[in-house]
Amino acid sequence: MALWVIRILFLCLCTVGGYAVSQVRPEYVGGMGGLIGMVIGFGFGWLMIAVDEMLKGFSLRAFSATTFGLLLGTVVALLIDRSGLFENVEETPTRWLIRLGLFLSFSYIGIVLAMRSNKEDFSLIIPYVRFAPQTRPDNLLLMDTSVIIDGRIADLIEANFVEGLIVVPRFVLKELQTIADSTDPIKRARGRRGLEVLNRIQRNTRNEVKIHDGDFPEEKEVDAKLIRLARNLNAKLFTNDYNLGKVAELQNIPCVNLHELAKSMRVILLPGEVLTLRIAREGKDRGQGVGYLPDGTMVVVNRAQNCVGQQVEAQVQSTLQTGAGIIVFADLRATLAEPPKPEPVVSASSPHPSARA
């Protein structure tokens, strides 16, 4: 909406400018009056807006690269023109066509090469110079939709394990809002959880959160937009999507998968160690009870079927690695395996055993 306000203002200025030119220089419009000047100014304004629409998605980085390529191609063409190769060609239309072809060809080649290059290629042309703003933060953390909905990133930030500028793209925020407005109750709950986690991250004073307005209209998938934005910002991508993480690694983009991080942070248990846990339910086999460690690791405890709902101590016997994680097998400690038998109560009226004897 703000863009169209600027465009309308630009059209008005062009129309007024056309009328002013027709009054100052009536010969430019053939003496046909101010109306023709206003029409010409209005048409010029619409032409510039059409060019603006054609250049949609053409970023400032692409414009600077194009300018640099045009300048480089022009310099090369000028060096060839002044090299003496065309000294025998007289100042005729042929010489003019040769020079025009040189400048157009090398300018085009310079623009194309600059558009295809990255900042590392520019450092080869200008050694020891890096095109990066000095005020830019050293650590940019780019969040995708899955890691925001997951919620564990907020715990890591609050525990001061993650430091840097949190970057949330506008298109990720829009995707969260779309999920939160879904008719599917599960998707709607996930979307609302993501928005709550994002608000929780913003309330944290340790890390600044920035909503990035950069977008790539030519890319239809959110994952492709995240890859391009991470490359342009030189940011570290945080995600729970396995495929997105692998694509990022193939393109040399630093990526953190919270699932992989959680696996690496799990406690390594050795046979003989003693665990304290709560038995949550009965196991599949007879006499077994099942409990869970704080990180979600499942522990199968033998002889704990009667201890459901109780806090017990178990001794680790072995571990089993599965596709879903690690399963720990343990035995209930001997002191808790069998509850103590109650002592018989002797009533006052019954005779003492020695008396009966």
CATH fold name of the largest domain, please? Answer: Rossmann fold
Q: Supply the number of structural domains.
A: 3
> How do the strands of the widest beta sheet line up side by side?
3-2-1-4-5
Spatial gap, N to C terminus:
106 Å
The succession of helices and strands, N to C, reads HHHHHEHHEHHEHEHEHEEEEEHH
For the sheet with most strands, the description reads: 5 strands, parallel
CATH architecture of the largest domain: 3-Layer(aba) Sandwich
Number of strands: 10
pLDDT average, as an integer?
Answer: 78
What is the CATH class of the largest domain?
A: Alpha Beta
Number of helices: 14
The whole-angstrom Rg is 36 Å
Task: Characterize the structure shown.
- Helix content is 49%, strand content 17%.
- A five-stranded parallel β-sheet has the order 3-2-1-4-5. A five-stranded mixed β-barrel has the order 6-7-8-10-9.
- The protein has three domains: 2-125, no CATH class; 140-264, Rossmann fold; 274-337, Nucleic acid-binding proteins (OB fold (Dihydrolipoamide Acetyltransferase, E2P)).
- A hairpin with a 5-residue loop joins strand 7 and strand 8 (298-302).
- It has 14 helices and ten strands.
